[in-house]
Amino acid sequence: MKGLAMLRINEVGWINKEKPVINSYDALVRPLAVSPCTSDIHTVFEGALGDRHDMILGHEAVGEIVEVGSDVKEFKPGDKVVVPAITPDWRSLEVQAGFHQHSNGLLAGWKFSNFKDGVFGEYFHVNDADMNLAHLPDEIPLESAVMITDMMTTGFHGAELADIQLGSSVVVIGIGAVGLMAIAGSKLRGAGRIVGVGSRPVCVDAAKVYGATDIVNYRNGDIVKQIMDLTQGKGVDRVIMAGGGTETLGQAIHLVKPGGIVSNVNYHGTGDFLEVPRLAWGCGMAHKQIRGGLCPGGRLRMEMLIDLVKYRRVDLKPLVTHVFNGYNNIEKALLLMKDKPKDLIKPVVLID
Ligand code: NAD
Ligand code: ZN
Predict the structure, then answer these.
(1) 82, 149, 296, 306: which is deepest, by most CB within 10 A?
(2) Rounded distance, CA 312 to CA 65, Å?
(3) CA of 265, closest atom in ligand 1
């Protein structure tokens, strides 16, 4: 089979590989729709995972089951499925401790295009199909369904980690697809004021659709000053970090009130340390919590998010600005994600 792969740091290309082999609990899936992620860009062009050779990229897909192992009970060939970016080993101690994202190691629930080939191949392997796949309802179009696998689960996790309360005031730093979903998740959890920090008009428009009450443009100067002015110097109850560089942690700590929560789902790609501003952190005594997490995956999570889409609590269509048809366009879509033209939020490739 062929697949679009990371050949080495900074280089992508099409390669041929053997079809994956499945074990008794696994499934072989062929993609029906895929979307490149900003994380694929970090992986290839920033070497975020270190060097990888001929590793097929991609971890956002919906697909059709081609084959299942003899112990798979609830899925069969021909079923259409939502495939989470995170597919944990459910038989692990970390799962018993409540953190499936880290099953068998730090961040190790993330397997596609990390520890094994990703979903940009003609076929891909899914471990523990009964625990990691979810049936795709007919009502949800493929373009929307593929947004559930990573963007929705990640942005919503930002809102969960932030523990948004009814009426909480929230700042979301970064309003790409993840930040937009953090806004949507915050609104669903009952946030009051939601300030989106971003600049591109396409993202600003979508942020307002998803529930942002105010927009602050980080290109217009210090966001701490801008948001403190907006809030009469009080700051906010919660900050969700979903974009920007390492400086955003310090900004978030300045912005959050004593007793507030800073929630991070962004990838911090440079330097050895993140800096905590000592005074804004109350010299360590401000009761300002910092939380960060990898998005939840697995079947139950997907089923719950699917219901939010199926019963129209969230519309994922505004996230998808570019749709391509045909396998060969995956490379174009990936490079689009790297170049981030002004009108892009997320591209999706439909596979015939
Ligand atoms: P994105 O690049 O589409 O969105 C990030 C946005 O932040 C961009 O629009 C960018 O212009 C903007 N930005 C840049 N500097 C900024 C600043 N100083 N302040 C505010 N905004 C700024 O990416 P995305 O797909 O929305 O993903 C966001 C991040 O989440 C990425 O780093 C991605 O790797 C990461 N991610 C994490 C998980 C997880 O499980 N935790 C999952 C998926 C993606
Ligand atoms: Zn991703």
Answers:
(1) 149
(2) 26
(3) 41
Q: Where are the domains of the chain?
A: 2-152+295-350, 155-292
Superfamily of domain 155-292 in CATH is NAD(P)-binding Rossmann-like Domain (3.40.50.720)
Question: pLDDT tens string for the chain (352 positions)?
Answer: 999 999 999 999 999 999 999 999 999 999 999 999 999 999 999 999 998 999 999 999 999 999 999 999 999 999 999 999 999 999 999 999 999 999 999 999 999 999 999 999 999 999 999 999 999 999 999 999 999 999 999 999 999 999 999 999 999 999 999 999 999 999 999 999 999 999 999 999 999 999 999 999 999 999 999 999 999 999 999 999 999 999 999 999 999 999 999 999 999 999 999 999 999 999 999 999 999 999 999 999 999 999 999 999 999 999 999 999 999 999 999 999 999 999 999 999 999 8
Pocket of ligand 1 (CB under 6 A): 37-39, 42, 150, 154, 173-174, 176-179, 197-198, 200, 203, 218, 242-244, 248, 265-267, 294-295
Q: How is residue 152 written in tokens?
A: 């929705």
Q: Please state whether beta strands 289-292 and 256-264 pair in parallel, antiparallel, or not at all (unpaired).
A: parallel
Residue 65, beta-bridge partner list: 29
Q: Which atom of ligand 1 is nearest to the CA of 203?
A: 9
**At 38, which amino acid appears?**
T
Q: Pick from 41, 219, 267 the residue to mutate for probing ligand 1's pocket: most ligand atoms within 8 Å of its CB.
A: 267
Residues whose beta carbons lie less than 5 angstroms from ion ligand 2: 37, 39, 150
Overall pTM surpassing 0.85 (yes/no): yes
> Right CATH number for 2-152+295-350 from 3.40.630.30, 3.90.180.10, 3.40.640.10, 3.30.70.120?
3.90.180.10
Sheet of 236-241: strands edge to edge?
A: 214-216, 194-197, 170-173, 236-241, 256-264, 289-292
